[in-house]
Amino acid sequence: MITGLDSRGRGRGVHTLPDGQERPVAVNGALPGDVVDVRVRRRKAGTILGDVLRLIQSERPRVEPFCLHFGECGGCTLQDLAYRDQLSLKEATVRAAFREAGLPDGGDTGAGVFRPALPAPRERLYRNKLEYSFGAQRWLTDREVREAEEIADRRGLGFHAPGRFDRVLDLSECHLQPEPSESIRRFLGEFTRERGLSFYDAREHCGVMRLLIVRTSLTGEVMVTVMFGEDDPGAVELVMSALAERFPGITSLNYVVNTGANDSIFPHEVMLYRGEPFITERCGPNRLRIRPKAFYQTNPEQAVRLYEAALTAGLGTEPGAGDPTRLAFDLYSGIGSIALLLARRVERVVGIESVPDAVRAARENAELNGIGNADFLEGQVETLLSTLEARYGTPDLVVVDPPRVGVHRAARKALLEIAPPRIVYVSCNARSQATDIQDLADRYEVKLIQPVDMFPQTRHVETVVLLERRG
Where does 129-283 sit in CATH, by number? Predict the structure, then answer.
């Protein structure tokens, strides 16, 4: 019997050995109330780690999955659960992260500390960005393996199979991103197959077609970036001209040539083939220019609600109600999405970001929205943060939205030295978030824990935490 969840979203239970000894079990894909047979993968620190081999019974009724790739694709793993149950699981995961870090999980720290998870406006078609991989060797389905049919063309276009960098699940459908994402993927897959273009072999590091990146926005604009794995000007022109002709409404059409071993777009020059070098996204009252390398929350409708939850927690007021906050710092500020919303409510915002392109974009977005009270500084948070107080003064509020690994130790130390009255910590990884907060716990008290569901059908959850300085 699975009795709970841990901070990784794994079902937890106990296995009793024949001699009566008990061993903790962590099971991927299992939920509280499930009775399951487990396929054991390994043992670590006395814990049995495994996957669900067979579901015997469950307290949570399963629903019919809506995607035919369910169970083979690594995404949307909760789509056989009702949405209300998904939210309950995400709340339990956040609570587990705080308990494992030795922090109160909100259940015993006073009324209203832990808030119910904020549901997403859409349960499907909510993403504004998808990366599709071309693979020379696609993943074979269970049916294909059983029937042992001879498959002449093993090329695939879709997502990497779970745990396999060298195998791509060839998609027939995907319910994550609105049109024209599906139409573009289908067209490019069929076109490149018909023209005999090679798909990328991740083991041999060769192949023309490597990645297809599609971005959409709430304004209706579309950005497409194609990554080629070989420097073949003829193939580049063939593919890009075909996309331009078939989809004349693409706002920004780009390509990248990447002959290196890593799929990352960041080290490589992005070439504009047609249209604008950016698309425009709507973020509350602001407009943000999104370029091919820019990071922006992949659920744009829910992103605004996430940011509003963070600002309301930090400012203590609803938007437009007026606030005594004079100075705010935004750490890991990216392209300015949070800082530019803050700038409309405080006297001055200072953002720190290490990625030069993001800093330039933030400054561009500030100018685009007529915002003159936001400064964006380029550098590492752990290096610059300790210098800001001398230049700007002590902030009334610090907003922190770091990468999944969390806040650098030196940055946490600088936060304690500056000691702002309030810190709002936004994170996509409750485990690293809770660990960081534990380091601040002697000086700060957790006043609010607000899970926000940015990724329906998955186990991922964003969390907003308000910390107030003690005394």
Answer: 2.40.50.1070
Q: Name the fold adopted by 1-59.
A: OB fold (Dihydrolipoamide Acetyltransferase, E2P) (2.40.50)
Full-model pTM: 0.90
- Give residue 293's pLDDT band: very low, low, confident or very high (50, 70, 90): very high
- For 88-101, what is the mean pLDDT? 93
User: Considering the chain, what is the average pLDDT of its residues?
Assistant: 92
Output the pLDDT for position 280.
98
CATH of domain 299-469: 3.40.50.150
All structural domains of the chain with their residue ranges: 1-59, 129-283, 299-469
Q: For 180, how many CA atoms within 13 A lie in the half-sphere containing its CB?
A: 16
Residues 136-158 have pLDDT tens digits of 999 887 777 777 677 778 899 99
DSSP 53-116: EEEEE-SS-B---SSTTTTTSSS-TTTTB-HHHHHHHHHHHHHHHHHHTTS--SSSS-TTSBPP
- Write the CB contacts of 124 (distance below 8 Å, at least 6 apart in sequence): 66, 175, 176, 456, 457
Instruction: State yes or no: is 428 an active-site residue.
Output: yes
Q: Cis omega before residue 180 (within 30°)?
A: yes
